[in-house]
Design a protein that fits this description.
Length: about 90
């Protein structure tokens, strides 16, 4: 790791040269359709997790136990409590 100003400048020059000399290869290309699909799936999962937190918050407010919530989400009550308690407080 560069520590002096001269080392930092030398490192910057090396990085600039690598950037300028870079020639893309066919294997470096990323499939835009696959990336868009992945991006969409991540957004859907985030939305589903927000929905789950809201539902757990509502269930706790209605008096459901962590054990009951865990049964609905497919885990133990303790696991549900560990995962959601700080997010629904």
């Amino acid at each position: 790791m560069p520590r002096t100003v001269d080392e930092i400048l030398q490192h910057a020059d090396e990085l600039a040269a690598r950037f300028e000399d870079y020639e893309p290869r066919a294997g470096d290309e990323l499939d835009p359709v696959a990336l868009a699909s992945l991006r969409e799936a991540v957004a859907e999962r985030s939305e589903a997790e927000r929905h789950m937190v809201d539902a757990v918050r509502q269930a706790r407010a209605a008096g459901l136990s962590w054990s009951a919530i865990g049964g609905f989400v497919g885990t133990s009550g303790e696991a549900a409590r560990q995962r959601y308690s700080s997010r629904v407080a």
